[in-house]
UniProtKB/TrEMBL annotation:
Pfam families: FAD_binding_2, Succ_DH_flav_C. PANTHER family: L-ASPARTATE OXIDASE (PTHR42716), L-ASPARTATE OXIDASE, CHLOROPLASTIC (PTHR42716:SF2). Its cofactor is FAD. The lineage of its organism: Bacteria, Bacillati, Bacillota, Bacilli, Bacillales. The gene is nadB. One of its GO terms (molecular function) is steroid dehydrogenase activity, acting on the CH-CH group of donors. This is L-aspartate oxidase.
Length: 538
């Protein structure tokens, strides 16, 4: 059993800091929500590294919103529902497609500079989108531009205080309400931060896997601490693997954006053969899960560790202009996007599920909100449509702030001691080894393709790591491992319970989608275990 709190603390002995709103995380969700909330509240933003370290920074493709006259919310809705494979919450998708353009307008007003052509915003098309609706910045550096603009904007707000290099250990709850968070400072001392609202914007859990496009900080902290606090965790079996991450000795798993295929790139196996026609009529622009599994099949057939992405038939000027970041990055490793086929392989990219919220971003715990990849709003269903993630963060960030502004005053009593089991000392070295072992278990048994036997075996191996919760944890690496282990257990349990294949969840022992039995969400709760929630809107 995972304990309620990771550490033993006498709260009454700790310094207390009071703020209106506590924002945990500094990607687009955290930055945007903090700026919006600061108009009427004092805000504390807590990030375990710095404002520039988040998944948003690495988002290349762009942000999806209905801007063009040829496009409509109805088209955007349809594309999102098709990608989500029957698991999207229709009301959440409606919110996204109708409120997305206003969110983009907010980003522009906050200083984000999207690319323009002939005086209008340059819109591109990505896999599974029926229309051109992706705004991008500096070609393929959209996330970086958004983070740059919003980070600068936070400095203009006296109401926002930023704590870099601070780690949120746990959420503090009392009588079903979130009262704030227990935070560890860079010097190892701890402080209790109290607030009328706490917003988790802590991103995803890509570090569950050995190969991921996510930065080192993506260790599922928000999902794990929300689970310990008693929130509902939904649909975490759906992990999107990006089909095309750079796979080259010495290079990180750098994203080769969907947009490269959108602009005409083709996939070839190591024999040089184009292969996507054997797997899907949309070829290279098929949904991500289909492309990722096709690549793995080709790698197995040809006994290779990669396939190639080839855009050499397009003009060099177009490639350099449209994908300057990818072009430069590959060039640093001796690969020229304009003349070379680039070796790629799938890598863990995005978690569709997360902390279950309502349409105002509020979780099953009062005053606790979740926004961005850490949340499960129901927008993405079983498979996220490309570039909907950044839109979701701003649309629901706006709604969260509206809800916070209407919260009744806050009067928190809290337990003086955080009860937890007897603990023994633990070593950092052992944690580094344990993390690597966990990642290998997840790749092997809970990755792109799964089956019941493997998932059961993976679950047993993960459970052997549970004694970490009986040890004395004091360092960030230890907390992160405890959080990764929590997320790994939740993901594997959810994947084992879903006996079908849908979206990003593929079971070789149940290869068909089963709408009759499985058109429902998997919900995990610390005390109630795994439950299912049917979808009513057919």
């Amino acid at each position: 059993m995972i304990p309620r709190y990771l550490v033993d603390v006498e709260l009454s002995q700790l310094p207390v800091i009071d703020k209106d709103v506590i924002v945990i995380g500094a990607g687009i969700a955290g930055l945007f929500t903090a700026i919006k909330a600061s108009e009427h509240n004092s805000v504390l933003m807590i990030t375990k590294k710095s404002l520039l370290d988040s998944n948003t920074r690495y988002a290349q493709g762009g942000i999806a919103a209905v801007i063009s006259d040829e496009d409509s919310p109805a088209y955007h809705r349809q594309d999102t529902l098709i990608a989500g494979a029957g698991l999207c919450a229709h009301d959440a998708v409606d919110v996204l497609v109708h409120e997305g353009p206003d969110g983009v307008a907010d980003l522009i007003q906050m200083g984000t500079q999207f690319d323009q052509e002939d005086g209008a915003y340059a819109l591109t098309k990505e896999g599974a989108h029926s229309q051109r609706r992706i705004l991008h910045a500096n070609g393929d550096a959209t996330g970086y531009e958004i983070v740059r603009a919003l980070s600068e904007k936070t400095k203009d707000h006296d109401n926002i205080e930023v704590w870099d290099d601070h780690f949120v250990i746990d959420l503090i709850t009392h009588d079903g309400e979130c009262c704030g968070a227990l935070v560890q400072k860079p010097d190892g001392s701890r402080v209790y931060v109290r607030g009328k609202a706490t917003v988790l914007c802590s991103g995803g859990a890509g570090q569950l896997y050995r190969y991921t496009t996510n930065p080192d900080v993506a260790t599922g902290d928000g999902i794990a601490m929300a689970y310990r606090a008693g929130a509902n965790i939904q649909d975490v079996e759906f992990i999107q693997f990006h089909p095309t991450a750079l796979c080259y000795p010495g290079a990180p798993r750098f994203l080769i954006s969907e947009a490269v295929r959108g602009e005409g790139a083709v996939l070839r196996n190591i024999k040089g053969e184009r292969f996507m026609e054997r797997y899907h009529e949309q070829l290279e622009l098929a949904p991500r899960d289909v492309v990722a599994r096709a690549i793995v099949s080709e790698m197995e057939i040809t006994k290779s560790t990669f396939v190639y992405i080839d855009i050499t038939h397009e003009s060099a000027d177009l490639v350099k202009h449209r994908f300057p970041t990818i072009y430069e990055f590959c060039l640093n490793y001796g690969l020229d996007l304009t003349t070379d086929w680039i070796p790629v392989a799938p890598a863990a990219h995005y978690m569709m599920g997360g902390v279950k919220t309502d349409l105002n971003g509020e979780t099953s715990i009062k005053r606790l909100f979740a926004c961005g990849e850490v949340s499960s709003t129901g927008v993405h269903g079983a498979n996220r449509l490309a570039s909907n993630s950044l839109s979701e963060a701003i649309v629901f960030g706006r709604r969260i702030v509206h809800r916070i502004n209407n919260l009744e005053p806050f009067c928190a009593e809290v337990p003086s001691t955080l009860e937890s089991p007897v603990r023994m000392a633990s070593s950092i070295q052992a944690v580094v080894e344990k993390r690597l072992k966990l990642q290998k278990i997840m790749v092997r048994y809970s990755g792109l393709r799964r089956d019941g036997n493997g998932l059961s075996k993976g679950l047993d191996e993960l459970k052997r790591q549970l004694p970490i919760f009986q040890t004395l944890l004091t360092k960030r690496e230890q907390y992160e491992f405890a959080n990764l282990l929590t997320c790994a257990l939740l993901t594997t349990q959810a994947a084992l319970s879903r006996e079908e294949s849908r979206g990003a969840h593929y079971r070789e022992d149940f290869p068909e989608r089963d709408d009759l039995l499985w058109r429902k969400h998997t919900v995990l709760h610390r005390e109630h275990g795994v439950t299912e929630e049917r979808i009513n809107d057919v």
